[in-house]
Write a structure and sequence with these properties.
Blueprint lengths: L1 E10 L2 E11 L3 E6 L6 H8 L7 E6 L2 E2 L4 H6 E4 L11 H11 L5 H10 L13 H14 L4 E5 L7 H17 L3 E5 L3 H4 L5 E6 L2 E7 H5 L2 E6 L1 H4 L8 E7 L2 E7 L10 E4 L2 H8 L7 H9 L3
Parallel strand pairs: 3-8, 3-9, 6-7, 7-8
Antiparallel strand pairs: 1-2, 1-4, 4-5, 9-10, 11-13, 11-14, 12-13
Bound molecules: adenosine-5'-triphosphate.
Adenosine-5'-triphosphate binds next to helix 1.
């Protein structure tokens, strides 16, 4: 249902997406992950048909995405910048939604709004940041669009409402499967929800794989440097760190045996993604070390 081949997106001369290719053929929940500014929102806008690719092929529900009516009718993009006519109350916004989204679940939207403690008499522009985010997400889920794109939907929500909204997403997806792509920096919170991770890095797809596969990609070796170093040649080393006598190496997983003095620890999915997208330019600790030494 989504086919993206050698997608390139430039803003002026700046290349944001250099060569992005992936396919999604069946309903599932996908986490779109990547560092700030990597191009997640840009990719979602292209999939929704709001932005034109600079190059490459992007098809959604079998049609070229950009400004296509079929794509527009089957896709919804929920993003920070959502605005609704200021004269309308939330009730009025919801009542006209089925005109745009044929499968819009009106009763569900009202129930979720009430559950979230948001009065339908409010106007969208008068809502708090968290309330706006909750309303927008409710609107997106209730639309039941075949392709539902959520760009950092939890931003501004407190932890309790975030927990509730993750449950809403999952329950509604299970009852009405669709392609749901959620971009988020809260990967730890989302990992129980998503099936696959689409990780963007340096303008490309770094990986597109099931969550458990991503988690097993890398492990942490911990011990004394002298005990670990001789074994590092057996691994692809992604990151090393020294903390006093403790030496840590994050390496690509393999089944080779290790001596008892070296401990192997699993990483969280979020940590694996962070390591895979960490620049080779060192860490914040290096900046403080050099400023403390006066360098
Ligand atoms: N309309 C625009 N004109 C010029 N540059 C833009 C425009 N929109 C986005 N960019 C640039 O494109 C890059 C990618 O932006 P985008 O918002 O897609 O990233 P993102 O991965 O969603 O970031 P974040 O995680 O911080 O939300 C950034 O460097 C941004 O400054």
């Amino acid at each position: 249902m989504i086919f993206c081949e050698q997608l390139q997106k430039r803003y002026g001369k700046k290349v944001i997406l250099a060569n992005v290719s992936f396919q999604i053929g069946e309903p599932k929940i996908i986490g779109l992950i990547g560092r700030n500014g990597v191009g997640k929102s840009t990719l979602l806008k292209i999939l929704a048909g709001h932005l034109k690719p600079s190059n490459g092929k992007v098809e959604v529900v079998g049609k070229r995405a950009f400004q296509n009516l079929t794509v527009a009718a089957n896709t919804i993009l929920i993003e920070d910048a959502m605005t609704f006519p200021t004269v309308l109350t939330l009730k009025e916004i919801l009542h006209i939604a089925p005109r745009f989204y044929a499968k819009f679940a009106l009763d569900l939207a009202f129930e979720l709004l009430e559950f979230s403690g948001i009065s339908h008499k409010n106007h969208h522009h008068q809502l708090s940041k968290g309330q706006k985010a909750a309303f927008d997400l409710i609107y997106g889920i209730a639309s039941r669009s075949a392709v539902t794109l959520l760009d950092e939907p939890m931003n501004g929500m407190d932890e309790t409402i975030r927990d509730d909204m993750y449950r809403v997403i999952l329950k509604d997806f299970l009852a009405h499967p669709r392609i749901l792509i959620i971009s988020s920096h809260y990967l730890n919170e989302m990992e129980h929800l998503i099936e696959d991770i689409l990780l963007l890095h340096e303008g490309q797809v770094e990986l597109f794989a099931p969550v458990d596969e991503v988690q097993n990609l890398a492990v942490r070796l911990v011990g004394q440097k002298d005990n670990i170093e001789p074994y590092l040649a057996n691994y692809e080393v992604l990151l090393t760190r020294e903390n006093g006598p403790i030496f840590e190496a994050i390496v690509r997983n393999n089944d080779l045996p290790l001596p008892p003095q070296v401990r192997m620890q699993n990483l969280s999915v979020s940590d694996v993604c962070k390591v895979l997208t960490t620049s080779k330019g060192g860490s914040v600790d290096d900046i403080y070390r050099s400023s403390e030494s006066g360098a």
